[in-house]
Write a structure and sequence with these properties.
It contains 7 helices and 8 strands. Helix 4 packs antiparallel against helix 6 and helix 6 runs antiparallel to helix 7. The longest helix has 27 residues.
């Protein structure tokens, strides 16, 4: 059975030709895996703003926008994992098409070329960031999940040690709480003798998903923790808001 995962974003946006849309719908009726992926994408589509002014784009411009969106979406055919936070990485691809329509609506009133160009630059930058995360995940490796606690309740992160040589370990965070300007999150690697080594300082970027590289290898450490700190240097002083054991690979 040939899956239709590469066409699901366009299917959800109603951008497929009728014959292709019918083919995808027929496949979804028989394939639970693609149907679950389609359900996740539909949830993202429902989150797109529904309060925008209803403006019609010229027919030629509409076709050009859909053609551009289709080319961009098919350019990335890497497989996607089915975890809840990875599914959110689909949002930039769908937001790209939505942003085009937002820009087109504004273009009906003001300089359409400038508005469309600026909007696409913003979305393209965000999409590049998410694609980098997807690529790191696609390469495989070892994973450990960190659930938020206390001040970090509701947040979480997944520590990933990539299989690819030369790529540093990184943490993919979700739902990070905002911090005052004077504070930051710090990732620590903790050894068995309770030595804390600072791996990265960062501030939340207000996105649902944020990836942060760790500057040290995780070999030899048995825990990873995240704290809230007032300083980018020195010993740990702030509260632990996430923590996970680092289980070594089986011999």
């Amino acid at each position: 059975m040939i899956h239709v995962t590469d066409e699901l974003e366009l299917y959800a946006l109603g951008a497929l030709a009728p014959i292709d849309s019918a083919r995808v719908a027929a496949h979804l009726s028989e394939c639970p895996a693609c149907r679950e992926q389609a359900r996740a994408i539909d949830e993202v589509v429902q989150e797109l703003p529904e309060t925008l002014p209803d403006r019609d784009a010229p027919g030629v411009l509409r076709e050009r926008i859909l053609a551009t969106a289709k080319a961009d979406l098919f350019a990335d055919s890497a497989p996607r994992r089915g975890t809840a936070w990875v599914a959110r990485l689909l949002r930039p691809a769908l937001a790209l098409a939505a942003a085009m329509w937002i820009a087109v609506g504004a273009a009906a009133v003001v300089n359409e070329n400038l508005a469309l160009s600026n909007q696409l630059k913003v979305v393209a930058a965000e999409r590049a960031s998410y694609e980098s995360i997807v690529e790191g995940i696609r390469q495989g490796g070892r994973w450990w999940y960190m659930a938020g606690k206390d001040e970090g309740t509701g947040s979480g992160g997944t520590l990933i040690a990539p299989r690819v040589e030369g790529r540093p370990p990184f943490v993919v965070f979700h739902d990070l709480k905002p911090l005052p300007q004077t504070q930051m999150y710090t990732i620590w690697l903790v050894s068995a003798d309770n030595t804390w080594v600072r791996g990265a300082n960062f501030r939340p970027d207000s996105k649902d998903v944020q990836a942060v590289d760790i500057s040290a290898a995780i070999a030899g450490f048995d825990r990873c923790a995240v704290t809230i700190e007032d300083s980018a240097w020195g010993r740990r002083a702030g509260p632990v808001v996430m923590e996970s054991k680092i289980v070594p690979p089986a011999p």
